[in-house]
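#struct-pred
JK: can someone run the complex with alpha-D-glucopyranose? inputs below
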Amino acid sequence: MEHNWWQNAVVYQVYPRSFKDSTGDGIGDLNGIIEKLNYLEALGVNILWLSPVYKSPMDDNGYDISDYQDIAPEFGTLEDMARLIREADLRGIKIMMDLVVNHTSDEHPWFQSAKQSKDSPYRDYYIFRPPTFEIKTPEDIEKAVPSDIGSIFSGSAWAYNEATQDYYFHLFSKRQPDLNWENPAVADEIHHMMNWWLDKGIAGFRMDVIDLIGKEIDQKIIGNGPRLHHLLKDMHNATFGCEGRHTVTVGETWGATPEIAKLYSKPEEKELSMVFQFEHVTAFHDPELGKWRSRAVNFNELKTIFAKWQTELANDGWNSLFWNNHDLPRVVSKYGNDTTEAHRIASAKMLATMIHFMKGTPYIYQGEELGMTNIRFDHLSDYKDIETLNAYTAHVPSDLSHDDMMAGIYADGRDNARTPMQWSSAPYGGFTDGTPWIGTNPNYATINAEACLNDEDSIFYYYQKLIHARKTEPAIVYGDFEWLCQEAEQLFIYKRGYKGESFLVLLNHSDAQVTLPNSLINLNPDWIYFLGNYPETIQPLSYLRPYEALVFKQTL
Ligand code: GLC
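RT: done, structure tokens with the ligand placed:
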């Protein structure tokens, strides 16, 4: 596969609401991000994925857009956005915007018009269906829904629209009506808007739940619908794939298998640069209650999943590598160990090593580079996330007790990722001079950027080394992947090789000391130490310490 600029790039995701507040209103903003660009430059990342900053009533924190060509006032203005693009560019950082086009906000003018009359020119921009029988009483509303499709945010996916006495479709909240991608006018509007942003100098898009836009409601097909790939090819041709654009695109595709991921990301398919697949997340979800009753992570299953994706996409398509985003729990709490400081730091570095040495483009979510942890708020009312709050109402007490639901929220709720970025030990972690829109994790007193920047062994500097390594070592980016010593239960050992250079990655994913397999004890002296998360290596090497990560390099 021909090499592309985004393959040895490292992406950093900013959730603007929680990153840095420059005005004291308790909500992060664009000027706050600009203030911290030097920090991101020091880390070394070169793409900044910005969660939505468009105008929005914020029912789902901006994933409900009411104007695609304006900025939410709490985040700033279009001028601030232009400045962010310029200032980032000066530091070698390109901006990737979030493209949320499966749905709009109910406050978008298209929907405002569509819901008023069946004759609205925007009526067919959305998905309306009649009741299954004539509605005579208020109780009938729930019963006459066009189908039993459920919303991802709980309850029915159909909401009754009084004015036209029918229902509209929403896969997420009632305030996020789905766009009708069967209508070519919708695609035209969206393409136009995408080009408008690309012309402003952004480098590409992260595409929100993009695998849902090919849905066929009446056939009850939601994800990976039959028209999906045609729609993406059209989008590619009309927007980011145009001559002269050097863009990067990543689709959020919860339902992707390796075969499907190749359809999206093989260059000759002319669709996307890469996709996010979530097998390492959903593998531990409950078949019925999903993440609200997830089971503990089994690292041996996890290794099999990662190795499968590395192997399957070895020659075709391209992987994205991530543990975290604004919807997922903090990596160190979920997959590592945050019960002691030593384990938190070692496991955060080990988990970072695990994915940053794989083939694909790595993504870092704000605060991951500090080892930020999950939050446990005492009261449900401290939680802000609509998915969490709706799920609580839907499941308690019918399927889960209050305590079990809270355990699910602590383990996997989305607000784990959304507490304010911890900049310093100042009040609220230095995130705001006001009162933050969501509680701060009290551990900001010790876990914060300032402390990390003052400690040369910090997680921050470890990430900096990993990012630097990708820019300078082609074997990490393009090398073949080989999983070694698969029988070693508490270890993950793999090799990467490319043009006469190889890396050997040794990871201990347990909290105990583990003896190395015989074949690896006393490595050949031509394997040179490259990186590790303990200050000194064991000589001679015969075991790995708790959560140890060690990388060796060999040049032929
Ligand atoms: C994606 C986003 C999530 C959002 C949902 C609806 O999954 O990552 O935050 O709630 O889509 O837009």
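RT: quick notes.
The CA atoms of residues 508 and 548 lie 5 Å apart.
The longest strand covers residues 491-498.
JK: thanks, will look after standup
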